[in-house]
Amino acid sequence: MFKQIDISDKKEVKREAVAGGRIYLKKETIEEIKNKTIKKGDPLEAAQLAAINAVKETPNLIFLCHQIPIGSVNTEFKVNEDNIEATVTVKTTAKTGVEMEALVGVSICLNTIWDMVKYLEKDENGQYPGTRITDIRVIKKIKEE
Question: Which of 31, 51, 59, 142 could disulfide-link to 16, CB 3.0 to 4.6 Å?
Fold first, then answer.
């Protein structure tokens, strides 16, 4: 039997979580992103909006997560030669943390980039031999008492 953890007696405190991950892409795809020539538009801008939405939707996606107020969501990118690193920082004042929100945010962020560039990543057989999302993790968690 599943049940949600009772947090009603906990006090609200400031909380922050930073999650990160990366997507490996062809060097040619990275160049198209830098040159802003992707057919669907700017993948980084779309991924930023997707991360914000994903953070807000986390309790609807992970059924035992508490619904908490989101104070802010910040998404940052580092574009490297063969990959893009994304970090999502989520802040709140609540009775429980925002690690799951940050993890869902960075996951959807990276998947959005993949969706926008997949036409460039496919090989002659329609496969994605080098495209991959890796290293999704919580980088930092802060709880102010």
Answer: 142
Of 42, 82, 115, 123, the catalytic one is 115
Structure tokens at 41: 């538009």
Specify the CATH number for the domain of residue 73. Answer: 3.30.70.640
Is 82 a known active-site residue?
Answer: no
Into how many domains does the chain fold? 1
Task: Report yes or no on 4 lying in a domain.
Answer: no
Q: Nearest to residue 97, comparing CAs of 10, 4, 17? A: 17
List, for residues 30-87, the tens digit of each pLDDT value: 999 999 999 999 999 999 999 999 999 999 999 899 999 999 999 999 999 999 999 9
